[in-house]
Amino acid sequence: MLKLSKKVEYGLIAIRHIASVNNHISTVKEISEKYIIPVDVLAKVMQKLTKGKIIISYQGAMGGYTLARKAEEISVMDVISVIEGTQVGIAQCFSEVPENCSIYTNCTIKNPLGKIQHNLEHVFSSMKVSEII
Amino acid sequence: MLKLSKKVEYGLIAIRHIASVNNHISTVKEISEKYIIPVDVLAKVMQKLTKGKIIISYQGAMGGYTLARKAEEISVMDVISVIEGTQVGIAQCFSEVPENCSIYTNCTIKNPLGKIQHNLEHVFSSMKVSEII
DNA sequence: CTTATATACGCCCTGCGTAGTCCTATTTGA
DNA sequence: TCAAATAGGACTACGCAGGGCGTATATAAG
Ligand code: SF4
Ligand code: SF4
Hints:
The structure is a homodimer. In chain A, 50% of the residues lie in helices and 6% in strands. By secondary structure, chain A is mainly alpha-helical. The model of chain A has no long low-confidence stretch (mean pLDDT 97). The A-B interface holds A 1-5, 8-9, 12-13, 16-17, 20, 34-37, 76, 80, 84, 88-92, 95, 102-103, 106-109, 111-113, 115-116, 119-120, 123-124, 127, 131-132 and B 1-5, 8-9, 12-13, 16-17, 20, 34-37, 76, 80, 84, 88-92, 95, 102-103, 106-109, 111-113, 115-116, 119-120, 123-124, 127, 131-132.
């Protein structure tokens, strides 16, 4: 609970790696071997990051990935939300339509939790990839 | 992912309820009916909160629960860690022995994540139950 | 001393999300 | 044409969240 998924961690490691080699093109194979990450899992993470416009993919031989923008402009929050796909929320009513929660109308803590949610988002958004190199 | 468990939400709702009736004794039945919470689930949550010294239980007829200390002295973090039992950590290496993570030695992001972890703990610790009434 | 009302606590079931493997298609440089 | 890469779907194994049940124990009230 409250734990980041391995996919997110793998994504951060990969992005940090690319940034650390001055944004030179890097392959999944290279990264997965260096950090001992299952290659298929990392591959799909990279695909999501590509779709999320965080990295750029180059197909074919000599292909690989580079960052789509500067490391200072990529936040941990960006990475999480792109990989996770769904809206990141500390509670169901923040990540889906509120009415999905069966006790929404009776819930007395959604407002205070909203405040926490806001603070959480700030923590994740203010940490940029450039700070983790 | 990154979501609070229902148990934690139920615990917070219950504690807030007891605080809102000026710490008068409240029963599981009463709370579960008022907020439409499965009674068995709430019961076990209350038992954990009792063991964690956050609330006090009174057994037998006319029994129930009251807070063990003032609402200003109960943080959301207290509730989470007592209900969750295990150490709350944003990543495996923070909630269990670090060596459990197979890539611990190669991991380049554990330090920055540690900073986030610290900030997170601060967010949860600084929100007290007295603020959610 | 009996009964009704509580908490205490263990077992089990079900669904879903996570992590991972395998396989195939497509792109592209040499 | 071939080899190296990305793209992406199908499938499995496992653990945990959420909840349902059954039973034991404590105690106030009659
Ligand atoms: S409504 Fe209350 S209980 Fe339902 S998800 Fe939001 S916070 Fe949790
Ligand atoms: S070591 Fe790196 S990968 Fe392993 S848990 Fe800690 S942060 Fe995640």
